[in-house]
Amino acid sequence: MSNERTASGPIHNRRALLAGGTAAALFAPGLTFAASGDLAAIRKAAETGYDASVKRIQAWIALPSIAAENRDMDKGCDYMMALARDAGFQHVEKVPTDGHPGVFATLDVGAKRTIGIYFMYDVKQYDPAEWSSPPLEARIVDKPDFGKVIVGRGAVNQKGPEASFLAGLHAIRAAGRKPPVNIVLVCEGEEEIGSPNFRQIVTKPNVLAALKKCEGVVIPAGWQSPSNGGVSVNLGAKGIAELELVASGAKWGRGPKTDIHSSEKARVDSPAWRLIQALQTLVTPDGNTPAIDGYFEKVRPLTAREKELLALAAKQLNEADAKKALGVDHWIDDLPWDKTLERLASQPTVNIEGLVSGYTGPGGKTVLPGRAVAKIDLRLVPNQTMEDSVAKLRDHLDKRGFKDVEVNVSGGYDPTETDENSRLIKAEIATYKRLGAAVTVYPRLAGSWPGAVFTSAPVSLPAGQFGLGHGSGAHAPNEYYVIESSNPKVEGLVGATMSYVDFLYEIAAIK
Amino acid sequence: MSNERTASGPIHNRRALLAGGTAAALFAPGLTFAASGDLAAIRKAAETGYDASVKRIQAWIALPSIAAENRDMDKGCDYMMALARDAGFQHVEKVPTDGHPGVFATLDVGAKRTIGIYFMYDVKQYDPAEWSSPPLEARIVDKPDFGKVIVGRGAVNQKGPEASFLAGLHAIRAAGRKPPVNIVLVCEGEEEIGSPNFRQIVTKPNVLAALKKCEGVVIPAGWQSPSNGGVSVNLGAKGIAELELVASGAKWGRGPKTDIHSSEKARVDSPAWRLIQALQTLVTPDGNTPAIDGYFEKVRPLTAREKELLALAAKQLNEADAKKALGVDHWIDDLPWDKTLERLASQPTVNIEGLVSGYTGPGGKTVLPGRAVAKIDLRLVPNQTMEDSVAKLRDHLDKRGFKDVEVNVSGGYDPTETDENSRLIKAEIATYKRLGAAVTVYPRLAGSWPGAVFTSAPVSLPAGQFGLGHGSGAHAPNEYYVIESSNPKVEGLVGATMSYVDFLYEIAAIK
């Protein structure tokens, strides 16, 4: 799951609305009197359940499921099923795939409307040596300017927000209420490797039938801006293809099949140099524009409405904050802020995630490597598709004589788009507004998620992210999730939990 | 130390000569009657000392000194000193450097001539997971077609051959003889990182004074061809510069300073792509010819004599064996065998030893790396120098706007040349011939060693490799050294030991 920086804008007087027991909460605009009463009681239950909710996140983090390492996958799936049962889902089913299993669960309360929720139970790889506290310990740490946070792998990506959603269901039940909508939960354990088998889960006949009844699908997210508490509502996301380009003596028929002594370079071809030559054809000399033949053929330019939304976003978001968060002094071509947002939303990319060849330890080692690998991700925009883009890459290499350079795709998904006027998006915006969070409507998330599995046929639903609360460090060391916020602009665990509860009520009520 | 494949040619009837107690050994041609008698007695002592000699190799392998990892360096130096004392060196001195210490030792028997011996006490890094037996256990293994071998890191590179030389000194003493020449021993612990401080050792006034008395310097080596027992006499070696090319957001001022989320590629520059662009300017598109500006300026073409020697070598050496050993089906440009030998001897290279950037584990990780590194070695021929070649690389990058791409040199040495008519080379050839080993005189070793430290001022001595015996797998898993040969063409430990003893007598006697 991508670690997106989120929208920012003027901070509204949201704390008062979220504080339990105030008149504002009792008469939340847009909801019925009864619903408002429910919310107050549920908030009290969420506060009472705080310790249990924290422990739920910590216990989940303690069990990392890492598909890339085939680590604790079955255990993680079973754990996910137990979490669902515990939160009140009546039907909980393991869904086998060609890879690691997923989970399908339903909580049917006989409501008029149904919402789909998407969970990932896997997390990204990590190196404990890079962490300030053990990544599976989920230690509670005082983080200056943030408050109490849980530090651990998966804290924000995605266990913290997901567990906050589950905490909402626990709170609803503890308050003696039932959810205002039926809930369909679909979970996978391969999100971090590009969801290669997720389509198998959602197209299982009973899963698909259940999803077809939904207003849309959201993944819980904790991406409130720490500077102003703002959030984004994303009308889609870029697609991604993750792959390895591999040059090897074995496939090439030239150069060595294993690493040999480097003095042989004088008479033996080098797969590493071959990879470099193949790579440099893929982008413009500045490394910033894909040069794969035909790569832009299917790219749909930004619409007038998308440009309008991006211009608005440029005003709401803070350039200095973004540069600071990224550790970047200059944008590509020293572009102005608004143009960087346009590029983020509209430009497909060819990125090097990693390079591996020969000797990779400290110092040098006099080898001529038999194999060289570039880990690549292609970010895609509508109407590119993963399949077509990978095929174009293959053709591009073939045409230049690099038929032996392997293109090994490990996963990915098509770009996704969701109608701004769908009930799902309207409910997201309405909930955020009711809770006083500044909303930036953003045409397209630059990160990627398996949303296309939902937005494309046969599921064909609106899909997006939703949630208050804050965390950061996805895919990085010291990933964290705020549980007790010292920042008046950002929700802690209880506030995040209540944002999900509010959203369920909003989905039930929205016109 | 480079893992060179060695010369091969017609096998002579050498076993009879080497077998102790035969008339041939008692009257070895070219030596005095007295010397021949010495050799027979010393061989008996070497046979008696076999078990102790094997244990000496094993115990040494058990203590790996790895400069790149700063592992056991002081211990390794102390051990080296103990080995020297044990072998009879009267003066043994630790020589501090700016890096790890070296050892200087002398064995003065009042002889007319003095020989210099060069040892490295360090070994290459290793990954135990890749080994068939623990690399420090120095297990004795039956290797089909070879006999009993010691498997361990450093077995052939260079502890086995070095310990075989020491075994010769032990045998001489055990036989009640004294060495026929004085011996000056210089050792370093940084050979595997390119000998960055070795010049400090040899130019220490008392060390330099001792070296100045030497006929030349040899490093013990066990490179007998397994196919025919042949050996090479190398009249020099290529130089090498080992370095890292580093592109980073920190130095560039563009792109991220650490790894960030890969979706940002749409608006953030990529140090990894920058490295690729810089790299691809360094060689021709086939990766086979250096394209660094002015790189060939100082290259001296092969002389007529060098070409003559290479043509002879092409007849003596076996192409199929070489291809099999390397796992290579085609040479560069499908060159014929003789041309590959010319290239090996005459062509400078730019080789990629390794590539490291971003995520290097299994599968992918959606990062835009803040740093990318290419580990490079430049192989140099006369009259290139390391300093000049690195300067040319720097200029080449600067001229193309890659001023930010760092060139971090970790070590290396200039090319080295030794006169075919020097007493050292004449003694090598004479010894090999007397022992019946087919000799290929080779103009230049394609691998590199710190020979230039000896051949250039102020030491200015002939320098080369010497030794019978066989091992392989330097820098690779399952490195081995034959101690009991089942191959009639290859010497075991006793034969290797005696080759050094013979060589000392030859140095004493040669005109």
Outline the structure in words.
The structure is a homodimer of 511-residue chains. Chain A is α+β, with helices and mostly antiparallel strands and 511 residues long. Chain A folds into 2 domains: 14-237 and 415-509, Zn peptidases (Aminopeptidase, 3-Layer(aba) Sandwich), CATH 3.40.630.10; 239-299 and 348-413, Alpha-Beta Plaits, CATH 3.30.70. Chain A has 17 helices and 20 strands. A 6-stranded mixed β-sheet of chain A has the order 1-2-6-3-7-18, sandwiched between helices. The first copy, chain A, has a 4-stranded antiparallel β-sheet with strand order 4-5-20-19. In chain A, strands 12-14-10-15 form a 4-stranded antiparallel β-sheet. In chain A, helix 3 packs across helix 6, helix 3 (33-48) packs antiparallel against helix 17 and helix 15 (423-434) packs across helix 17 (493-509). The longest helix of chain A has 20 residues, at 155-174. The first copy, chain A, is globular. Chain A starts with 13 loop residues before the first helix and ends with a helix. The model of chain A is unreliable at 1-27 (pLDDT under 50). The interface between A and B is large, with 94 and 94 residues. Strand 12 of chain A pairs antiparallel with strand 12 (349-358) of chain B, so a sheet runs across the interface.
**Number of helical runs of chain A?**
17
Q: What's the CATH architecture name of the largest domain in chain A? A: 3-Layer(aba) Sandwich
The CATH class of the largest domain in chain A, by name, is: Alpha Beta
The proportion of strand residues of chain A reads 15-25%
Number of DSSP strand runs of chain A:
20
Q: Can you tell me the CATH superfamily of the largest domain in chain A?
A: Zn peptidases
Spans where pLDDT lies below 50 across 5 or more residues of chain A = 1-27
In oligomeric terms, what are we looking at?
homodimer
Distance between the termini of chain A: 31 Å
Specify the biggest β-sheet of chain A.
Answer: 6 strands, mixed
Gyration radius over CA of chain A = 24 Å
Q: Kindly give the count of domains of chain A.
A: 2
